[in-house]
Design brief:
The complex is a heterodimer of chains A (232) and B (293). Chain A has 232 residues and is an alpha/beta fold. Chain A has 8 helices and 10 strands. In chain A, the strands form 2 sheets. In chain A, strands 6-7-8-3-9-10 form a 6-stranded mixed β-sheet, with helices on both faces. In chain A, α3 crosses α4. By secondary structure, chain B is an all-alpha fold. Chain B has one domain. Chain B is built from 11 helices and 2 strands; from the N terminus they run ααααββααααααα. In chain B, a hairpin with a 4-residue loop joins β1 and β2. The N and C termini of chain B lie far apart (53 Å). In chain B, 50% of the residues are buried. The chains are: A alpha/beta (232), B mainly alpha (293). The interface between A and B is medium-sized, with 26 and 20 residues.
Chain lengths: 232, 293
């Protein structure tokens, strides 16, 4: 289980996260929802060590990861799909996947399993990532993270800018990951992308988690969405 | 000697210049590409390489090839170690801040230069080439060693290409160059990669220093020209672009060699600087450079 306790994160003097705590259990999908600038991406970056928190603790499966440098976080089995995909555009598809393998020293079988989620990428292995379509880039970003055989997947707006058929593919992969006992921490702005896959939803605003509810509670009372997101 | 043979001679001199320049500039380009650090001390690594080559060759008696071969091994290793230590002690602590690292590498330039002046003295000293052989053309004789330098540069640049494109270390370096943050999120210790890249860049400069010292002599002020020309090459080729660096080195080396011989070295430098200005105006990212993330 991924356990984050009391993250306070700053950009210079400006506090971006205030006492953020959350847990993600194996086979569970936790969604972070919130308006632009609510602190969702910063939460993910703090977990990845890319914007280290000033205060707070983090553990995965009982192993304390607090204060680890960013490059050592993925070795513990946390896969990351950054906002905007952030592929190595000059590298080929195969090279992007190899970087995923390097993260944790996983073997070629891991790449095969990752490609099992996105068979369309097999035909593109020698192509530069920057020349792929938006949908293919999303698939590659997820496959790259899956190459490290994560126990926790962190997805930052994976459906951003995608057409509906591709959104459905990403959603199916999230459902499959959950079935494979992988915990998923998903950041989204679109509530419709979240409702079919989430087990719990945490609502963020001004760098704080304002509420955390089970999916049944959210479905039963859509006024919650209006309160925290201004929609519904 | 007629114009044709004179042009051939000038072209050969230009190619030698391009060969040494491509190795020197490759180091500078690599460091900038991965670390975004403008290393003003890069020319001093060339100088240090040449000076260490002189010390190494002086210590070994016997055939000059022995001293040269030893210098080719010892010099890059020592210069690489100095660069590695500089990176750990200075650049890393500055968090690779672009402005601060420029000032810091200017400081490093003076430390290296003045240390060499203290230890080695102000004299220019030659190192014997590994072999003396002259290739006889119908119009003039040409040093086989200079052709060896061109061949060595081709092999070294091929080696750099191979490492960058075909090895795991190269994949890591290119990933760190393209997007440092994402590279870290995939387990790449960008910080450590930077230290090795800085050392590697300095080692390339040192190799260039060793190759050039039988032609040019080792002197404590010899770092200025390679630095200026490397900056010109890297800017024309495109910051961080290795293929652009090679292309620009050939262009600048040839123009510098030919114009220096046919007109004057001052005019050659003026043309190179004009080229930089034109590239900055019409292709700000260089001939083959791309905007970084």
């Amino acid at each position: 289980m991924l356990k984050v306790e009391g993250f306070d994160t700053y950009y210079g003097q400006s506090q971006a996260l205030r006492n953020v705590s959350l847990t993600v259990a194996p086979g569970e999908v936790l969604c972070l929802l919130g308006r632009n600038g609510a602190g969702k991406t910063t939460t993910l970056k703090s977990i990845m060590g890319l914007v280290p928190p000033k205060r707070g603790r983090m553990s995965l499966g009982g192993v304390d990861l607090t204060g680890l440098p960013a490059h050592r976080i993925p070795k513990h089995g946390i896969g990351y799909v950054p906002q905007g995909r952030r592929l190595f555009a000059e590298h080929t598809v195969r090279e992007n996947l190899e970087i995923g393998l390097m993260a944790r020293g996983t073997g070629r079988e891991a790449m095969e399993r990752a490609l099992g989620y996105f068979p369309a990428l097999r035909e593109r292995m020698g192509q530069r990532a920057g020349t792929l379509s938006g949908g293919e880039q999303s698939m590659l970003a997820m496959a790259r993270a899956l190459c490290l055989e994560p126990t926790i997947m962190i997805l930052d707006e994976p459906t951003e800018g995608l057409m509906p058929s591709m959104i459905a593919t990403i959603r199916d992969v999230v459902i499959r990951l959950r079935a494979d006992d992988v915990g998923v921490l998903l950041v989204e702005q679109r509530i419709d992308a979240v409702l079919p896959v989430a087990d719990r939803i945490a609502f963020m605003d001004h760098g704080e988690i304002k509420a955390e509810l089970g999916i049944a509670e959210v479905r039963a009372d859509t006024s919650i969405l209006r309160t925290y997101l201004g929609v519904g | 000697m007629g114009f044709g043979p004179y042009l051939l001679l000038a072209t050969l001199e230009g190619l030698v210049q391009a060969a040494v320049l491509s190795i020197t500039a490759a180091g500078l380009s690599l460091v900038f590409g991965v670390m975004r650090v403008v290393n003003v001390a890069h020319g001093e690594f060339v100088m240090l390489g040449a000076v260490i080559a002189w010390f190494t060759a002086s210590l070994l008696t016997g055939h000059p090839a022995m001293g040269f071969a030893a210098a080719l091994l010892v010099s890059p290793l020592l210069v690489g170690a100095v660069a590695f230590a500089s990176e750990r002690v200075v650049l890393r602590r500055l968090d690779y801040n672009p402005e601060a690292t420029i000032v810091a590498t200017i400081g490093l330039l003076y430390i290296l230069q003045q240390t060499v002046l203290l230890v080695y003295g102000p004299d220019a000293r030659p190192v014997d080439p590994p072999f003396y052989y002259t290739i006889r053309f119908p119009w003039f004789g040409y040093s086989a060693y200079k052709l060896f330098v061109i061949g060595a540069a081709i092999v070294i640049m091929g080696g750099i290409w191979f490492v960058l494109q075909k090895t795991r270390a190269g994949l890591v370096m290119r990933a760190a160059q393209y997007d440092r943050e994402t590279a870290q999120a995939f387990g790449i210790p960008v910080d450590r990669v930077s230290a090795w890249v800085f050392a590697l860049g300095a080692m390339l400069a040192a190799i260039a220093g060793v190759l050039v010292v039988p032609i040019q002599q080792a002197h404590y002020l010899m770092g200025a020209d390679p630095l200026l020309l490397s900056f010109i090459v890297v800017i024309i080729g495109g910051l961080g672009s290795m293929s652009g660096t090679v292309l620009a080195a050939v262009l600048v080396g040839l123009s510098d060699g030919i114009i220096s011989m046919m007109f004057s070295p001052t005019l050659a430098k003026m043309v190179s600087t004009l080229l930089v200005a034109l590239v900055l105006v019409f292709r700000p990212n260089g001939l083959l450079g791309k905007a970084a993330r």
